[in-house]
Each structure stands twice: as structure tokens, then as C-alpha cells.
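Handout, section B. The chain below has 436 residues.
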Amino acid sequence: MEPQAKIPLDKHEHKPLQVNPIKHSQPMGAALAFMGVHDCMPLMHASQGCASYTKVFYTRHFNEPIAMYNTSVSDITAVLDGGDYSILMAIENITKKNKSMKPALIGLHTTGLTETKGDDVRTVGEHVELPYCYVNTPDYEGGMESGWALTAKALIEQLTEATTQVKPNKLLILPHVSMQPVEVEKVKELCSSFGFETYALPDISTALDGYLSEGQGKLGTGAITVEDIGQLGDSATVVTIGTSMKIAAKAMLEKNPNVTHLHFEHLMGQEINDNFVEALMKIRQIEPTPLLKRWRGRLQDAMLDSHFLIGSSHFVVTGEPDMCVGICELLRSVGGTIDAVIATVYSPVLESIIAETVFVGDLEDAVSHFEGADLVISNFHAERLLHTVEHTGLILRGFPNYEELGNQLKNDQLYEGSTYFLFEVANKLREVRHHG
């Protein structure tokens, strides 16, 4: 298949504001990452409004109770009282009010207000009696993807013990922010099937996954504990999924130079999953399970079955860079034409996407590309814009998705998820052509 023509990637926006933004803030990514640590109390160093928005956002997307707290800072108290006082008082008040709540970790993440003030969130940790991890996530730079990645990096830098020893069968997965809870779970299961002692950081596979447990909504219910994070240094293999997570892998290598780092831009489609499985086989010298081989065959069948619909169609994709690259490469593997990719923020991985145009922007920029597309893959906010465009369908991906239930159980990863994704796209295209 011949590469599509493409213009050079424009790394910067050229408007003073975003209209119908697809971008979300760094603190939102950090909050989600801290929810992926067991018994962590995500504490946003911000006003009540900032934290309330994040809490409502995730509550509507996942339809689950959300563990989210804030330091109730205002522009006045930030200047007069200082950020240190607000953090200490917030921790004391929250833990006194909920006496049964015993956080294993305070996950403090900053916002634009407190970063502009310049609060010393590192030093304040010396006065906190509970285990404490801080991350600087101003919302005037970066986005959700970088906030998540910076938090993973901070957890490793501040909690993981340095060592030079490795356990040959211990593996750490560093997944990007757009991977849903069930997707993290599926990747962990695959690695475990090769005999690895598998961990993920952050690990939302048991958080926000639709399982109601006692005390849910008060503390993070992630599958990795603070003790686990402390002992991650002896992982023989670290697997990053998504370019944004390379900074966390670098932090691991600084903790232990003997760690082997394997990087994958995404896990969508046959080729990259073949590479992933081959890497695991090489380390463990174990054949894949019969079920895994069967799913590979099912994906090949799905590629054949969906080729005629997808191969004659044009697509527009919007969202976080690490999500966009996987979707685009899977669609192109069966002949799809990518008209435009509109990313939330710049990432080097965008340079690898083959499309007519790739740029950083918002839905106002994207709407001009909708008319010529057969299918748009975007978040919930694209829905109302597409009401005015005939013969163009929509598949919801990324944050937020307020339209559909079960986002936490939607799987697009590995052979299995890629199969489901191709059939979903092909069925939507058939629906648009018959009823559009």
C-alpha cells in the first residue's frame, strides 16, 4: 500500500483560545493515575471548582464513584495563607472527617493557580505524617496524557528503591492514559500467561472497572500497592505502551541500570502485537497459549472481512497522541485512508502517522474535515457537530464519552481488542451507507 501524501506536522496552535476543545488538563491525568494506586488519596492542590469538575468528568465517563479531594485554595488564600498550610490542613481535615479512611499514600498534584504562586510541594511532604508523593502538573501546559505520565514518573522517582538486582521473570507495564481498565487487565493477563510476575503502573485494572466494593469512592482502588511500587526496581523488563510513558521508563532505568526496556507505540493491529508477543517469547522461551494463537487468526479473519468497507473509506481521528497513532495504524493496515488527525497536544509520535494532515487543534479545526469523511473517531463532544454533516458516522473514543455505558470494559488492545475494533468500525460504516 502506497503511503498517503502528507504535509509537515504543525506542532503549535495558532489561536488565542480553543473552541470545542478535545484537550484536557494535566491535573486530570494525574488524578486518574493516582486512582490507579491502591488506597491512594488523590489530592488536587486547587480550588474546589477544579477538583469538582474532574470528579464530575470521571463520574460521568466511568459511571463509578470517584476518589477525589482538594485543598480548597482560592486566589486570596493562596497568597495570604500560603500553599503549605492549605495542604496540611486539607489532609488533617479529610482524615479526621473520615476516621475509617487510612490512606496508604497522599497523591498531591498541582494546578495552574498553585504553580503560578510557586508553592513548594516537595518540602511540605516533610511535614506530612502519611506516605506522600507530589507531582507538578500545571494546567497551562501539557495535557491529560502528560499529566498521567508525569505522575507515573514521580511515583517511581519518589517511592521505588534503587537496586542493581533483577528478578528474571518480573515485568512492569507502563500503559498510556487512553487505555481503559479492562485493556490494562488484558495486557497484564497476556504477560502473565508467559510466566511473568506482572505489574502495571498506574494500574487502573481494578479501579473504575464497574465492580462496586466496600469503601469505593473514598480511596484509589488500583491493583498496585505502595509496597509494590517500592519494590519495582528489581523488574528485569519494563514495557512502555505509548511514547508519553518513555519518561517513566527512564526513571526506572535510573533506579536500576540493569533493567531491559521494551517500547511499543501502541498495541493495536497484527504487526505490532506480533512484535510484542515475540519479545515475550524470546525472554521466557515459552510458546503462546492456544487461545492467543486463535485470537491472532480471528484478527486476520477480521482484517479480511472488514477490508472492503474500511479500505474504501475516509477517516478523521481526534484525541490523545498515543491513542491516535494506534487507531490510525490499525485502520491503514486494512486499507483505510486517514484524512486528518487532530491531536490534543504535540508528541513526537505524531510525526509517524501517515495521513493527509496531522495537527494540534480543537474540534472547531476538525469540523472542516468532517464533510469528506465516512467516519469520525472522536470523543462525545464531536456528536453535536456531526448532526449537521450528512453521510458521516461517529465512533466514540477517548475522554469523555458520556453517551455510552461500559467505557471501562471497552477493549481495543492486542489481537482480541483489535478484532472487536475492526468489526465495530466496519459495522458503523455499513450502517452509515445504508441509512446515512
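Note. The two ends are 29 Å apart (CA to CA). Compare this with the example in section A.
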